[in-house]
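Protocol step 4 of 6.
Sequence for Dehydrogenase (Actinokineospora fastidiosa) entered exactly as in the expression construct, tag removed. Do not edit the line below.
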Amino acid sequence: MSMAELRVGLIGLGMMGRHHARVVREVDGLTLVAVADANGDPHGVAQGLPVLQNVAELIDAGIDMAVCAVPTGMHEEVGLALAEAGVHTLIEKPIAHSVEAGTKLVEAFAANGVIGAVGHIERYNPALQSLRERIANGDLGDVYQIATRRQGPFPARIADVGVVKDLATHDIDLTAWLAQSEYTHVTAQVALRSGRAHEDMVAATGRLANGTITNHLVNWLSPMKERLTVVTGEKGAFVADTLTADLTFYANGVVTTEWDSVANFRGVSEGDMTRYAIVKREPLRTEHEKFRDAVLGESQEIVTLQEGLNTLRTAEKVLATASQQLGAC
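Step 5 output, structure tokens:
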């Protein structure tokens, strides 16, 4: 695949920045030409490139697109500078630290005619990509419920936000995307159990515009790691395990019975189980390829800034309803 090389700059050289640097170097049509982080390069990703100090220096390096992997609190400042400089930018999730900041980013990218995307990487998990195609194809019939479980130990990276903005945003985004419908209602309970400043456990329920009901259990207090999405509908249930990228379908069995009292019961029975063989590409690589294609005007399979903002707005509502119930969070 031959194309003009896009000059890419990366700002933020932490845990995610390290992975972005590796993938940008692997993807056709992208060349990593500049890296920046005021705190230096702890993982040695520069590989001979000078480690620049800030976004202004990154822009001065003459870049076509940027990856913004700085802490969430800095997304607004860095993103606005890139938008004003006309640089297409992939911003790590969540889009920003507040709905107000996210709104400014959406407006700035639109006003400057540049493409922005949010790194909600779970969308590019092969199991979920396959699941979305199958739902859209009608394999499930009407979708009734989407339930997710994202549980595990505390991550060994700096978290300037709680579990809702750090992790539950994945589930909010992938749920709205799978169902192709936005949230209209959400309510939640949160807990602070580890002595940190932010919530570390949440149980949220919601409803989408199309009537699908949702449930999300998210924490970083579990000794076992779990990343599960269960979509239940008219014809059965899909279970996607995004740790292993496996997708399983449990069909509703169709059993006819002549016994009247049983025949009147409108329930479901257990049918065949199918496990799908899926090509397991690295989600981050797919994410970068889709962003590259969007910059080149070839496709639009990105998480738009507006979608990122919708997700953040839902996350804020989760926190607002939870804090009302706690009295003060």
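Step 6, annotate. The chain has nine helices and 14 strands.
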